[in-house]
Design goal:
Elements lengths: L1 H34 L3 H22 L30 H7 L35 E2 L13 E4 L6 E3 L4 E2 L29
Antiparallel strand pairs: 1-2, 2-3, 3-4
Length: 195
Amino acid sequence: MRKIILAIVGLVVVTASLLYFRWQERQNYARTERMGHGLGINCLNNLMQISLTFRIWNGDHGNQFPFNTSTNAGGTLELCAPDKDGFDSNAFLFIQAMSNELSTVNILICPKDPSKKPAANWASVTASNITYRFRSGTNITVSGPREVLAVCPIDGNILYSDGTIKSKYPIKPDDSGQIPMRVTLPDNTNVHSAK
């Protein structure tokens, strides 16, 4: 009888410890997601690189984004096809126009998006190789009012025309008290800002 009780107690202890470690694992995952680490931070990094690319292109082309620059000057102005919210179905064309400033086609895909595959090279980039939705229009400039430039439909991260990024998840200090990266914390700003 005593051996049976010891076996049952041992089984309960082993089961409880396994459940505890599984619970700890979930807590750690939730904490890293809240802090912006993991795949979410990679999306923010992609948007930061894309932001820098727009700013470099802007500086090299008379303070204009590619969708505000004529095709005669290397832009895509005549090829833009924005919808009612300003999101451009031909955004891949102005991404191609900026390809000299971009490091890899992989940054065009949110790491959490399993439906998109990277293009083989810059010349073969199409809308099917891009997760992020980009807006175009003459009202979207670096120096003008703050407008939404790109949105990640997976993570909800927003890139503004002035280069700031708003994360869906607040970025909190890590265990050492450091902020993992500088982003604008969420507010009640509507994604579809005034035009």
